[in-house]
Amino acid sequence: MSDCLFCKIVAGEIPAKIIYEDEWMTVFDDISPQAPTHFLVIPKKHISSVNELTSADEELIGKLVVRIGRLTQELGLKDGYRIVINTGKDGQQTVQHLHLHVLGGRSLQWPPG
Ligand code: 5GP
Ligand code: ZN
Question: Are residues 46 and 26 in contact, defined by beta-carbon separation less than 8 angstroms?
Fold first, then answer.
C-alpha cells in the first residue's frame, strides 16, 4: 500500500533500525520504546490487522512468532518478554499494518490498562 508507513519501512523509503529481515518479514526498533527492548515484527506483505488474516497467512504468522523466539534469545531476554498485537480502536492500534510488538528488558505490569 503506497500510503502505509510500515510498507514504506519495508521498501526502505523511510529509515528504521532494522534488526532482522528475510523474505517474509522486517523487524525493527520501535521509534518510541516502551521498554529497554522494544521492537516491531511486521509481515512484508500489507495486512491491515489480525482481522484481515486468512488461512493462507497461517504459515506467515507462524514464521513471525518462531522468529521472535529466536531473536529474543539472541538479544539475551532470558527472563522473558511480552508479545502484543494491538488491534482496532479499542486495542489502540495506530498503524494499520499488522505488527507484533516485542517488549522486554524490564518487569512488565499486568493488566496492561
Ligand atoms: P500501535 O499503536 O499501532 O500498536 O503501534 C504502532 C507503533 O509504531 C508505536 O509503538 C509507534 O511508536 C511505532 N511507530 C510509529 N511510527 C514509527 C516510525 O516511523 N518508525 C518506527 N520505527 N516506529 C514507529
Ligand atoms: Zn502496509
Answer: no
The H-assigned helical ranges of 24-79 are: 58-74
* Ligand 1 pocket check for 94: Cβ under 6 Å: yes
Pocket flag, ligand 1, residue 86 (CB < 6 Å): yes
Task: Encode pLDDT of 18-76 as tens digits.
Answer: 999 999 999 999 999 999 999 999 999 999 999 999 999 999 999 999 999 999 999 99
Which of 14, 41, 89, 94 to probe ligand 1 with, by most ligand atoms within 8 A of CB? 94
Q: Has 99 been annotated as catalytic?
A: yes
Q: Which of 80, 45, 86, 82 is nearest to 63 (CA)?
A: 45
Query: What is the three-class DSSP state of 8?
Result: helix
Residue 45 pLDDT:
98
